[in-house]
Design brief:
The complex is a heterotrimer of chains A (316), B (298) and C (537). Chain A has 316 residues and is mostly helical. Chain A has 13 helices and no strands. Chain B has 298 residues and is mainly alpha-helical. Chain B has eleven helices and no strands. With 537 residues, chain C is an alpha+beta fold. In chain C, strands 13, 14, 15, 16, 17 and 18 form a six-stranded mixed sheet that branches. Chain C is built from 19 helices and 21 strands. Chain C starts with a helix and ends with a strand. Classes of the chains: A mainly alpha (316), B mainly alpha (298), C alpha+beta (537). At the A-B interface, helix 1, helix 6, helix 7, helix 8 and helix 10 of A face helix 4, helix 5, helix 8, helix 9 and helix 10 of B.
Chain lengths: 316, 298, 537
């Protein structure tokens, strides 16, 4: 067990190195030039202006040198400063990350509360109209793009419940209840689609477990179908659902950018996307490094959890 | 979108002998018939779009801007006076084309790669899996933005981007099936008889990949339509004035309160497509997965 | 013409005589009272207190007015900093931090500063801060976007604490205009800049509001400056900018009262807010924001003037304005109608190749050797949805004239770079910004020797007119020069300006005393008078 964790942690180093190199290359391959974006049309024309910025930001050095320069600083624990406004990158990440984590956690809770019970019902209610209703209903959730669902929530909310604030961000630590309440519509918009995914995993997993021998034994003993489903099947069926939730969690942290934009949440997705648009190379690099490390670590934790609840899996 | 190399690919190795009986169950499964029916309808509409649409999806009708649905314009007109019905049909065609071509490309590249990795095993397998871990850890939407920004937004680049994003899933899935098939008696026998790796791959492993492949592919088709919608929202979808469903929703969303038909009709089209692909995928999974088939008890 | 006469002309040319005398002789307080009376809105005398919440679409990339070329920086910094001159609500240049000034000769400007003006951190403003402000922008290490403008200054002298003397290298007609435009010349404190390096994350100015908090992508909080030099102002306790990128969400926030002021470039916004109780719509006071379409003239077909003219008559400007802007726009040249009489006043009159004429377009193409028409590209930025829509409409119009256009969307940074460097394939179109002076509008993008000559055309006659316009100090002569220049550009179709428009402002009815100047881009994002705003609660 410990050897496994150590091995995975050691693998983190080449993984992060690889990602930082790949992202550095990709970012600098995007055409478009920081100086023009920064100065605007009229001012970027002046060669001395251009030179000043290029020198100030060391953009005149070869890419490899820029990369090593950046890497050296990162190894000393310094992610550098934004090329656009000069704020430390670490500070920007520290500001944006809690927003996204809160949104992700709230979306996952919403998705779990909706998805797992409905998934169970869709199995226990098999053959009845309920199954079809739940499955088609959940697919409607999947088929609505999150930005559309979000807009509907905001527009309807403003019209029919004007007292409820749906936009912007208040820190959880400053005002926990207000923070949760304000983020709830965004969590719903994101959680809806994920609840449908979890529903499907729960359903598939339940069906698989229900066909297993011990469940058949229980059934043969004459236990009621609902009892079989809940008592014997659910616990085992949830194991792959945990894995699926973990995957969704990781995907959300980097992928919530559209909902962050619609609901005006200053999260890490918007941080990176705006940095890409402004060619703020240090912010992109730092944030992607952070997000990747974050994803790898969360995946590791999920794997360990998974192995803990399902002892049949060996440590590879 | 499922995004972890470790958690994917938990597909059972099918027993080739029962394959023929699976197909018979297909049409009796309501998800398959409803989902399949919707997909067939979509395909027919997509193919017939040039015949079905009287007006060009890009033609402007001055003075007819933002008309609600009428006999003349069954789905109304948009803010530039274009026929929404024609745009929905053409948009659905484009979105479906993007979905089908990127999923086919991803499967066509990912599956052979996964089988090869699975058969090679050892160091190759370890390195490949770590490489996939990198791809999975990279935030997908950011990767998409970076790629589209680098190559420029177009239908072709959209397809390439989504292919790159989904290919690893197919590879990991195929690798899982291959690993599961390796210890099977018939594979071991083939190895003992000195069959070449290529032969083993084609005759013994690939048939097992087909059922999970169909399922993964149908599920991904609906995801691709939504990814395209997301990229359109960020202005990185296909090129105007050619319509896509996601692009129409992202644009019409602003006028939801004054011209709801701008989002309702493309929204319905997305729902039909996603519903069709998902039902088909779920149904196929139930029918083709031997464990579920027994448990299904129908 | 002797120097004295020239000086008078400067005064008469750029600043209304009465305003000038007031600024020079009478105390400034009386002047601002004059402006306030002119503004007085119904609703009784102004009430003190309350916070105005503004819904903004983009977060300022930083707050330093000397370092950021982003309009969203200026929106905030114009309330935090002051300039030597400013524009009154009646859009005249009047003294601000300067109590009075004199122009001697055509290159020397002497400003007498208001006494006792305090920076937000509690130190008095002196002539040294003014000198520092301009030397900082001219310093290469600052990398200021405005550097090339201020290189015109040969030297700055400070004979005493309250006197600043500028000497320019040559006569420069737009000088005072730049001094009265907030983002080009906001006066910053030497000590704060030297301590913190720049003013991107921190701020201390002499303006009516002080920076309290800046959380990027979330909120900018300003609070009332109790020591502001116009006594009694501002009425508000503070101004808060909430960053809400999505327009549908911003309108929802306006409906609920989460925000009390925002703007929109969408002509359909009127209909969207019609059902909102207590929300007023302020139409733009002038069309100042124009679109610029450029041709790659380094290669065929657009190196041929006939092909460019074919595009110019192939598009139907009036129809674009009707379809895309619902009629809320005007015909324009690079100098927009709101700056008339320097530009043209919103119609085709006097401008060659402005009338829609598809037959003429086909004929011009045939003369140029393209009897079967041409295939070309038009790049448009999805960041500006109305530019894309204009492109979509133009594509259909040009198809009828034998010009088959493929629209290409590009990510903004990429598209802007290609636009500036002429590396796009056929044509490219973006919204371009309002500038404080006709010279600033056209000099750099027209001049043969400029690195950002848009489209890479060379025309000695254009260069000659540009130099005349820059150094001529007589207003009427300048008007004639710039009109001739615009007519020549239209005739040669070096670049096209399909239409000019402006943003609509939306505010709650309890927001009183609000005034904005036409001009900033797009519409009125900047140069609004929050210090005179009060909330009727």
């Amino acid at each position: 067990m410990r050897a496994y964790v150590v091995k995975r942690l050691l693998l983190l180093v080449p993984t992060l190195l690889g990602i930082s190199m790949v992202s550095f290359a990709i970012i600098h391959l995007i055409p478009g030039d920081l100086v023009t974006v920064l100065l605007g049309i009229t001012a970027s024309q002046n060669e001395q202006n251009r030179e000043a910025i290029i020198q100030a930001l060391h953009l005149d050095r070869p890419l490899a040198v820029q990369y090593l320069h950046w890497l050296g600083a990162v190894l000393r624990g310094n992610l550098g400063r934004s090329l656009v406004h000069g704020a430390p990158v670490a500070q920007e990440i520290a500001r944006a990350y809690p927003v996204t984590v809160q949104l992700t956690v709230m979306s996952m809770v919403t998705a779990t509360l909706l998805g797992i019970p409905l998934g169970v019902f869709s199995v226990t209610g098999r053959g009845r109209g309920l199954e079809a209703v739940i499955r088609v209903g959940s697919l409607l959730f999947i088929s609505a793009p999150a930005f559309f669902l979000g807009t509907v929530l905001i527009v309807l909310g403003a019209r029919y419940a004007p007292g409820i604030t749906t936009l912007g961000y208040v820190s959880f630590f400053a005002a926990p209840w207000r923070s949760i309440g304000q983020m709830l519509p965004a969590a719903l918009a994101l959680g809806a689609a994920i609840s449908a995914i979890l529903l499907r995993y729960t359903r598939a997993s339940m069906l698989e477990v229900l066909s297993a021998d011990y469940v058949r034994t229980a059934r043969a003993k004459g236990l009621a179908e609902r009892r079989v489903a809940l008592r014997h099947a659910l616990a085992n069926a949830l194991i792959p659902v945990i894995a699926a939730s973990g995957i969704q969690f990781v995907a959300l942290i980097g992928g919530a950018v559209i909902v962050e934009e619609v609901f005006a949440l200053p999260g890490i997705g918007r941080l990176v996307v705006n940095a890409i648009y402004q060619r703020d190379y240090t912010v992109i690099q730092g944030a992607i490094l952070f997000l990747t490390a974050n994803a790898v670590l969360i995946n590791l934790v999920i794997d360990l959890l998974y192995r803990y609840v399902d002892p049949r899996i060996s440590y590879g | 979108m499922a995004r972890s190399a470790t958690a994917l690919g938990r597909w059972p190795a099918g027993d080739t002998a029962v394959r023929s009986t699976r197909w018979r169950g297909l049409l009796r499964n309501w998800s398959v018939s409803v989902g399949g029916g919707l997909v067939v309808v979509l395909a027919v509409v997509g193919l017939l779009t040039p015949v079905l649409t009287v007006r060009s999806p890009t033609a402007l009708h001055p003075g007819e801007e933002l008309r609600p649905p009428t006999v003349d314009f069954p789905f109304g007109t948009d803010e530039l006076g274009r026929d929404v019905a024609s745009r929905v049909l053409n948009g659905a065609r484009t979105s479906l084309f993007a979905a089908v071509s990127s999923v086919s490309l991803a499967a066509a590249t990912g599956v052979p790669l996964g089988v090869a990795i699975g058969l090679a095993g050892g160091l190759v397998d370890l390195l490949a899996m770590r490489a996939f871990d990198i791809l999975f850890a990279f935030p997908a939407i950011l990767l998409a933005i970076a790629i589209v920004a680098a190559l420029g937004p177009s239908l072709r680049n959209l397809v390439l981007t989504i292919t790159l994003l989904t290919m690893p899933q197919f590879a990991v899935m195929a690798r899982g099936v291959t690993l599961a098939a390796r210890p099977m008696d018939y594979v071991q026998a083939a190895v003992a008889l000195g069959a070449s790796m290529r032969r083993i791959a084609f005759t013994h492993v690939l048939p097992n990949v087909v059922p999970p492949l169909i399922v993964t592919a149908t599920l991904n088709l609906s995801i691709v339509i939504l990814v395209e919608a997301g990229l359109s929202f960020l202005g990185l979808g296909t090129q105007p004035p050619a319509p896509t469903l996601g692009g129409m929703i992202s644009r019409g969303r602003q006028y939801m309160t004054i011209a709801p038909w701008l989002v309702v009709f493309p929204g319905l089209a997305i729902m039909v497509a996603v519903l069709g692909f998902n039902l088909l995928g779920d149904g196929l999974r139930e029918v083709l997965d031997p464990k579920l088939r027994q448990g299904g008890g129908r | 013409m002797n120097d004295r006469e020239r000086q008078k002309r400067v005064v008469h040319g750029l600043i209304d005589r009465r305003t000038f005398l007031k600024g020079a002789g009478v105390t400034l307080l009386s002047l601002s009272q004059f402006d306030r009376i002119a503004l007085a809105a119904p609703g009784g005398p102004p009430k003190r207190g309350g916070v105005l919440v503004v819904g903004s679409d983009v977060s300022p990339p930083g707050l330093d007015p000397a370092k950021s070329a982003a309009a969203h920086t200026w929106m905030v910094s114009e309330h935090v900093y002051s300039n030597l001159l400013r524009r009154s609500p009646a859009n005249r240049l009047v003294p601000d931090l300067a109590e009075s000034y004199e122009v001697s000769g055509s290159t020397t400007f002497v400003f007498r500063l208001r006494r006792g003006v305090q920076f937000h951190h509690g130190r008095e403003l002196t002539s040294d801060d003014v000198k520092f402000t301009f030397e900082r922008m001219a310093d290469q290490r600052t990398a200021s976007p405005w550097r090339s403008i201020w290189l015109i200054i040969e030297r700055i002298e400070t004979p005493d604490k309250y006197t600043v003397r500028f000497t320019t290298r040559r006569p420069f007609a737009p000088f005072l205009s730049y001094l009265g435009t907030p983002h080009y010349s906001a006066i910053v404190p030497r000590d704060v800049v030297e301590k913190s390096g720049d003013l991107q994350q921190t701020a201390s100015g002499t303006g009516p509001f002080m920076l309290e908090r800046f959380v990027p992508e979330n909120v900018v909080v300003l609070k009332r400056n109790p020591r502001y030099y116009e006594s009694g102002l501002p009425y508000l306790d503070g101004v808060e900018y909430r960053i809400i990128p999505d327009e549908a969400a911003r309108l929802a926030a306006l409906r609920t009262g989460t925000i009390q002021y925002t703007w929109s470039v969408d002509p359909l916004v009127d209909e969207q807010v019609k059902s909102m109780p207590g929300v007023a719509v302020l139409p733009p006071k002038g069309y100042c924001a124009q679109h610029t379409l450029v041709f790659n003239q380094t290669k065929p077909p657009f190196n041929d003037v006939r092909v460019r003219r074919a595009v110019s008559v192939g598009i139907n400007r009036r129809e674009i304005i009707r379809a895309v802007r619902r009629g809320k726009g005007a015909i324009t040249t690079k100098i927009p109608p709101c700056d008339a009489p320097f530009g043209y006043s919103g119609d085709e009159k006097g401008l060659p190749y402005y009338q829609h004429n598809p037959q003429l377009a086909r004929q011009l193409l045939a003369e140029a050797g393209y009897a079967n028409g041409i295939d070309t590209t038009l790049d448009v930025p999805p960041r500006f949805p109305f530019t894309v829509r204009a492109g979509e409409v133009m594509r259909e119009q040009l198809a009828a004239a034998g010009i088959r256009v493929t629209l290409r969307q590009g990510e903004w940074g990429q598209l802007l770079t290609a636009f500036v460097r002429t590396t796009y394939d056929g044509m490219s179109m973006i919204p371009t910004v309002w500038q404080p002076d006709p010279d600033a509008h056209v000099y750099d993008i027209y001049h043969s020797d400029s690195a950002i000559n848009l489209g890479r055309f060379r025309d000695p006659f254009v260069d000659q007119l540009l130099e005349q316009g820059r150094t001529e100090l007589d207003r009427n002569k300048r008007i004639a020069i710039y009109q001739q220049l615009q007519r020549h550009i239209a005739d040669q179709a070096y670049m096209l300006h399909p239409y000019a428009d402006g943003a609509v402002e939306l505010l709650h009815e309890n927001v009183r005393g609000y005034v904005s100047l036409p001009g900033a881009q797009p519409g009125s994002r900047s140069r609004h008078f929050f210090k005179q705003v009060w909330l009727d609660r």
